[in-house]
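lol so apparently i was supposed to do this last week
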Amino acid sequence: MNRGIFISFEGIDGAGKSSHVQAVADAFAQAQRQVVLTREPGGTPLAEKLRDMVLHDSMDPLSEVLLMFAARRDHLQQVIEPALARGDVVVCDRFTDATFAYQGAGRGFDLKVLSQLEQWVQALPSGVLRQPDLTLWFALDPAIAAERLSKARVPDRFEAQPAAFFAQVHQGYTDRLQADPQRFARIDASAVLDAVRSQVMHVLQERL
Ligand code: TMP
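anyway here it is w/ thymidine-5'-phosphate bound
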C-alpha cells in the first residue's frame, strides 16, 4: 500500500495559491493516487460552518483562534487522518502555519498559546505532532497581493485587513519557514501563472 502524503498550501490572501491546488491534486490522480482535496478552515460540514463564522462574524482574537483549532480538530478526525491511514494524498489549502501567520504574527496572538493548542489538536496517539509532509508557501510582496485582491471579490474579515497586517503575516510565514526549512518549499508567487506552476511541479518531483 502507498504511504499517505500530506501537502499544505500557504500564503497571504492574493498570493494565488488556490489556482495551483487543483493542478497538484490532478497530478497525483494521474499518477494513480487517491487524492483528497480539502481546505482550512473547512473540509467537513462542521468546519465549513465554523469557516463561515470566522470569515464573516466579528469576534475577539481568542475566539478566532479557538474556532480555527476547533475546525482543524474536526477536519483532522473526520478527513485528514482517515485519508492518510488509507494511504491517500491529502492536498490541503492552508493548515496550522496559517494560524501562526495570521493569528500569531498578524493579530499578535501569543505564539506559546498557539503551540499549546497545536499540541492538543494535532498530537497523534503516539505523541507525534501531525504536520504536513510538505508545505508550499506562495511568497508574494504584500503590496502586489493587495493589488491583485482589489480586483477580486467582496473581501472577508481577513482580506479586508490593511497592508500592514499582511506584511506581518508575510513575516509570520518567513519565521515558520526558518523554524522548519525541511518541511517548507518557498514558491516565488510573483512570476506568471505558468512559471509558478513549473516551480510547484519541480518541488513535488524533487521532494516527494
Ligand atoms: P482562504 O481564503 O485561503 O480559503 O482562507 C481563508 C482565510 O482564513 C484567509 O484569509 C486566511 C484565514 N485563516 C486564518 O486566519 N487562520 C487559519 O488558521 C486559517 C486556516 C485561515
